[in-house]
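In response to the reviewer comment on reproducibility (Comment 2.3), we provide here a single inverse folding case reported in full, input and output, so that an independent group could reproduce the run without further information from us. The structure tokens appear first.
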């Protein structure tokens, strides 16, 4: 599909049919997320892919009863990593040391560790969740290019989602919940503000 058509045709699906996503396409959608850009290349995310119906049903009440979560073929929960950026973590240094030549890593580590250390826990959460949203967008747009529908969702109670997934809130937060599958109704016409209202050329 032409990219502009993909952008026009993706929509936030509110209900899904029983059709399942093939393993091949599911792997591609996950890869679209994994290949996304991130600040300092630190990939502050984890993708939890829920296919199990019992778990999907448990997620519905954690998402304000939004039924598309229970109907989707897969629900991907993008978690933002807290433990790798917690005080005292050596994750940044370890990653830079593994990826960069020794002299460059040596120069960069103190600067960027300082950047992290200057943020409090809530600022780090904002920083990492913003990046998870880039992965989310790539996954949803990429999915549509394969004919797969999705719904971006921030309508959830974070602690409840973590409880269903049995994840420690000290280690991860929840950036977005995304049901993926095949919509059981066609999309609706796009409603967007006109270019003149949202774009400024200088
Ligand atoms: C951050 C974010 C959170 C959203 N949360 C929900 C949600 O909880 N439930 C839902 O049905 N749609 C949710 N949406 C979908 C938006 O309502 C939808 O994307 C918007 O109205 C534009 O419509 P379109 O995506 O169909 O083009 C969310 C979208 C974004 C980007």
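Designed residues, in position order:
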């Amino acid at each position: 599909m032409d990219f502009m058509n993909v952008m026009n045709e993706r929509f936030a699906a509110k209900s899904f049919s029983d059709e399942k996503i093939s393993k091949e396409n599911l792997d591609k959608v996950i890869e679209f997320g994994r290949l996304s850009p991130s600040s300092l290349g630190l990939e502050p995310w984890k993708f939890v892919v829920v296919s199990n119906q019992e778990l999907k049903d448990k997620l519905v009440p954690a998402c304000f009863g939004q039924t598309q979560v229970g109907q989707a073929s897969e629900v991907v929960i993008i978690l933002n990593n807290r433990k790798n950026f917690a005080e005292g973590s050596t994750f940044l240094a370890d990653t830079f040391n593994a990826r960069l030549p020794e002299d460059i890593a040596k120069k960069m580590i103190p600067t960027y560790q300082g950047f992290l250390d200057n943020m409090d826990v809530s600022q780090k959460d904002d920083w990492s969740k913003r990046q998870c949203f880039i992965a989310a967008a790539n996954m949803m747009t990429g999915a549509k290019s394969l004919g797969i529908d999705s719904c971006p969702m921030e309508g959830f109670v974070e602690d409840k989602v973590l409880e269903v997934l049995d994840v420690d809130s000290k280690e991860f937060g929840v950036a977005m919940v995304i049901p993926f599958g095949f919509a059981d109704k066609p999309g609706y016409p796009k409603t967007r503000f006109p270019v003149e209202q949202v774009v400024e050329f200088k």
